[in-house]
Amino acid sequence: MSPFRLRTAVLSLALLGTGCESEAPFPSEDELDELNILHTPSARPEVDPTNKWGDNPDAAALGHRLFEDPGLSRCGTVSCRSCHEGEGYTVETPTAEGCGGQRTERNPPSLLNAGYNRWFMWDGRADRLWSQAILPLTNPVEMDSDAVVVRARLVAEPTYTAAYTQLFGTAPADEQNGDLLLANVGKVLAAYQRTLNRTDAPFDADVRRFLQAVQAGTAEQDPAYLGLKTFVRKGQCVVCHKGRALTDDKFHNVGLKDAGPGKRGQADAVEGLLSWVFNAAGVFSDAPTGTDAARLSALNTQAQSKPQEVVGAFRTPTLRNVELSAPYMHTGAEKSLEDVVDFYNEGGDADGSFVGVRTETIVKLDLSSEEKQALVALLKSMTGVAR
Ligand code: HEC
Ligand code: HEC
């Protein structure tokens, strides 16, 4: 028996029969398992087999320039960077401004660590980073562009033409298939975004030290004790924000107020994704029959068999670098991390202010002010070091 388990056993025996409220020592074996998988992610995202150029430095260099170029938009004033600005690659307002002063419906997520995601957009309507880029490019509210505008921009700038031709073997002017041109541009934009990683955070060092303290039997004295305990036990945060990326890569209805046209979340995204010409099982994918195809078919089965679970469901975002992405949630309604913690403490927003059924994990938490503060401090410690 490990010293830790021995201590647990003795303590629970001591509490038995005393009549006082007994709480099992933190962490239990199950909780320890959750803590053990919160390790620092690898420095680079896993290879994306559907994008042959995903880790190509020349592609990333071209992608970086295109990311900053408002000339890819039809109005000529909006680049990817317009809505993914600053250190957090997002905006400080709930929504962002596209062509002609139009506002997006949702809050732009940070692009830090985007290469680690398994689904894209709050509702999951893109399944790979390269195809995601085609959505803002062609969205009338955002860049309002198309293959004609994008091709013209590549042709007008000789260094773009040279880099594109070298990577794809065809000059942009000769690329007759507009969808292929957009997919290629998406792939270089993805190659760039796959370099925007901040993985190593004070949080990781704290977790490692805490695990040692558990071994040594001094967990309760560790400065991270209350924050981790609240995150894992009372707050149940780790149920969804788990593992290296602090997300389960799934979609949940947390009961967030939303009366906008996209309030049904994943429920309105699945069908479009399955029939989308740019999905990872489609003709523009570099591995159309690989695991991505199986992933899409599993998604379909799940949406068909449990339709109630996708209504009002949004993707669990990573919590890494979360301090840099205020305001929060898909609506951008929560201004600070304190507000997010209050939201969870209340068990979400009022019934009737969102569609669908709130998932059962989201309940009133009764957190003390110390627990709330410890949770906020923990979230702030998740900001990774810039490389
Ligand atoms: C007008 C503002 C705007 C522009 C321009 C814009 N985005 Fe976004 N971006 C958003 C919003 C809003 C979302 C979330 C949309 C949603 O989930 O429905 C988003 C989502 C994303 C995501 C998904 C991140 C995630 O974690 O799911 C990526 C990646 C991204 N944008 C990259 C880009 C790229 C690349 C470009 C340029 C081709 C771009 N964006 C242009 C506003 C913008
Ligand atoms: C049932 C799964 C689940 C649980 C439990 C959960 N979350 Fe979340 N979390 C989500 C989902 C899904 C979203 C996005 C919700 C939306 O915008 O509709 C989210 C969003 C967030 C955000 C906003 C991130 C951003 O970039 O906007 C923070 C911060 C957060 N959660 C922290 C926590 C904390 C702290 C706890 C524990 C008190 C917790 N979560 C519990 C699933 C969960």
Q: Kindly state the mean pLDDT as a whole number? A: 94
**Tally of separate helices:** 16
CATH topology of the largest domain: Cytochrome Bc1 Complex, Chain D, domain 2
CATH class of the largest domain: Mainly Alpha
Query: Biggest β-sheet, characterized?
Result: 2 strands, antiparallel
The N- to C-terminal Cα distance equals 42 Å
State the CATH superfamily name of the largest domain. Cytochrome c-like domain
Model description:
This protein folds into two domains: 3-42 and 199-257 and 315-380, Orthogonal Bundle (Cytochrome Bc1 Complex, Chain D, domain 2); 57-193, Orthogonal Bundle (Cytochrome Bc1 Complex, Chain D, domain 2). The protein is 39% helix and 1% strand. The chain has helices spanning 3-15, 29-36, 57-67, 80-83, 129-132, 134-138, 147-156, 158-168, 178-193, 202-216, 225-234, 270-274, 291-305, 307-310, 337-345, 369-380, and strands at 251-252, 314-315. A two-stranded antiparallel sheet has the order 1-2. Mean pLDDT is 94; it is low at 1-19. One heme C is lined by residues 78, 80, 82-84, 96, 98, 104, 106, 108-109, 111, 114, 117, 120-123, 129, 132-133, 136-137, 142-143, 189, 193. InterPro entries: Cyt_c-like_dom, Cyt_c-like_dom_sf, Cytochrome_c_Peroxidase/MauG, Di-haem_cyt_c_peroxidsae, MauG/Cytc_peroxidase. Keywords: Heme, Iron, Metal-binding, Oxidoreductase, Periplasm, Peroxidase, Signal. One of its GO terms (molecular function) is heme binding.
